[in-house]
Amino acid sequence: MDSTWVNTSLGLNLVPLCSADDHQAPATMQHELERDYAQFQGNNALVKEEQVASHHDVLAEELNRISVENKKLTEMLTALCENYNSLQSHVRELMITKQQQNNSSDIYRKRKAGSEDYNNVIGLISPGTNTDTCSISDDQENSCKRPKEHTNLKISRVYVRTDASDTRLIVKDGYQWRKYGQKVTRDNPSPRAYYKCSFAPSCPVKKKVQKSAENPCVLVATYEGEHNHMHPESRAEVTLIAPVSPNQNQQLITSTPLSVSPSMAKRSAPPTFSCDINRISPNTTMCPQETEAAAFQQFLIQQMASSLTKDPNFTSALAAAISGRISDHS
DNA sequence: CGCGTTTGACCAGCGC
DNA sequence: GCGCTGGTCAAACGCG
Asked: What is the pTM assigned to this prediction?
């Protein structure tokens, strides 16, 4: 990796340090400067050459030190990129493994397998409560649906973080939904709510919302079908809703389809995730695919930042660089 | 009064 | 065939 673009300057913009004892009157300081200048003029030419040579040595030493520091930072950046790539490939392998398991197993013909899959995905993407939410597109889940009714149904899931105490099964995604049923399922104490898209009478999209069995702070919204109409709002509410709001304590972050979907498998190249951070802010207009991509990028960035701060080599090198800068100026 | 929600009943698929 | 389960329907209800 080319290191020339890496700015090794810490940008501290330090002024020459002086001790507390040096707070002298300006007149005194000027007097000392004049005395030093007189001494300087009094030196012979040999002394001047020695001083220039000494100064040159100092500069050369400084240059070497910066070069070493630059090299060290470049190595760390390279290692970071390698870790990022390995993490990405690991996630991809997990997705492929899961897809293969789905293909090879008949359990997804069973109805209950669908809800088990919910929990598996949650455990895979957010093993703890530290992560927010994500979604996957899952065309393959068709296999666990009634084959006569759902032949070309597009199914996607969105995970929404909410209050565990919030019993409302509401996921704001900008569309208009009409609730037509609620059911308590066998493997989850939380009821499942059934919604139909009510924006267009002929819209076939349905939505199921249920709290995760493992993490009651997570709402799982399953979308079936595709809308045959435009989004009802130009500014969709598929947004991150600030948790400070007491009534709408929801944080919806979706991710790039992690995919288990045949559509993903058809792609010529595996999905890649750039390092651009698209901060999801309130009232951001984003389609579900865009929010998924942005959220997954953010998830990866958080993972990278977390691993960086936990890396003792990185923190020690950073501390050394800062202290080196300070000592140089003092 | 219109619209959305609630909730018990009903239907269909699946396993035993 | 029976029971279990998920999904859907529709009457009752509440709210603005």
From this structure: 0.43
